[in-house]
From TrEMBL:
The keyword Transmembrane applies. The keyword Ubl conjugation does not apply. InterPro entries: BioY (IPR003784). This is Biotin transporter. The chain crosses the membrane at residues 6-30, 51-70, 76-101, 113-136, 148-174. Belongs to the BioY family. The lineage of its organism: Bacteria, Pseudomonadati, Pseudomonadota, Alphaproteobacteria, Rhodobacterales. It is a multi-pass membrane protein. It comes from Rhodobacter lacus. Keywords: Cell membrane, Membrane, Transmembrane, Transmembrane helix, Transport. It is found in: Cell membrane.
């Protein structure tokens, strides 16, 4: 129990620290950050439930108003802004990543973690992130404005995918390194 709690807090801290890496702001309100790598790693290393709890702890800190998101953001307002779908999507993204790593034991760790990170950290996260961005943009319409289509929101987010594919590879490589040098720490596979 104590070990689990320590690892959950450690990965929450990792997600927060990755928020200190300067974000690359884009003109439409969604910056490029490294925090999604921490979400992928939380799931890939800790497994589904522990990874999701690590993310939930970060989300709780954000809700309290602590500036733990990239760019020093925090507070309840970020849960209703253009990035809300991504922030909310972190929890299922970590859970799915961990679930895939737990289930795909026949493949090498790097490949299993990479597949998990791609499914959780890209497919799940982008589905929620794009949906949230689309809802935010359409909720802010003024009379006479043309609503944004879901396809248009998807096209706006598409440029982020290559960078997140790099994060998927990094998550796989880091998980493999942990498995090699500290196998007991890779809870998703134990």
């Amino acid at each position: 129990m104590e070990r689990n709690l320590t690892l959950i807090v450690l990965f929450s801290a990792l997600i927060v620290v990755l928020g200190l890496v300067p974000a690359i702001p884009l003109g439409f309100g969604v910056p490029i950050t490294m925090q999604s790598l921490g979400v992928m790693l939380a799931g890939a290393v800790l497994g589904s439930w522990r990874g999701a709890l690590a993310v939930l702890l970060v989300q709780f800190l954000v809700a309290l108003g602590l500036p733990v998101l990239a760019g020093g953001r925090g507070g309840l307002g970020v849960f209703v802004g253009p990035t809300a779908g991504f922030l909310i999507g972190w929890l299922p993204a970590a859970f799915v990543t961990g679930l895939v790593v737990e289930r795909i034991r026949a493949l090498p760790v790097a490949i299993g973690a990479g597949i998990g990170a791609a499914l959780g950290g890209i497919v799940v996260l982008y589905a929620l992130g794009i949906g949230g961005f689309w809802l935010f943009k359409n909720a802010a319409l003024q009379p006479g404005d043309t609503p944004m289509s879901l396809w248009a929101a998807t096209l706006i987010m598409a440029p982020f995918i290559p960078g997140d594919m790099v994060k998927v590879v990094l998550a796989g490589l880091i998980a493999r390194t942990i498995a090699r040098y500290r196998p007991s720490a890779l809870i998703a596979r134990s």
